[in-house]
Write a structure and sequence with these properties.
Length: about 190
Amino acid sequence: MPWLTYQQIGERFGLGTEAARTRVRRAGWRTQPGNDGRTLALVPDDAELRPAGDRASGPAGDRETDRDETALTDLLTGALTALEDAVSVLREQLDAANARADAERARADRSDAAVAGERSRSDVLRSRLDEMIEARAEADRAIAEERLRADAAHTTAHAAQQAAEELRRADEARKARGLLAQLRSAWRGE
């Protein structure tokens, strides 16, 4: 049974220094400080340490460690599988949520297009209404002007009718006076 440093144990069995330290502690081998300050471990002659990838057989301590590591690996594999399943479910939920969001976005776009169409129709109707109001105002102005002209024409016609009536009365009065009275009126300048 030789006394070896952790580095020497690692070289002999194909392990790193830290892995050798862990194996010595797990196997329960005796350790003591060396004269140079490095820790020495008493390695049994029948000890067979193999790297983690080469685990065909070994002492009972190694088999127990292998079982612990296998159980841990199985546990981690199960946890990883559960996480992958959860990620898969979450990914499906995200895809469904994205699909719903895309559908809502498309519906909102259609709604926006419909609103824009209605707004355009409203603008056209508003323009037509404004044109009709302007035409009505123009017609009201034309009617007012025609009424003014009609009132003026009526006033003129009334004045002309009165003047014609006066002329007719004057003519009748002249005819009623007789010829002599007419001559007298003419001579006097009436």
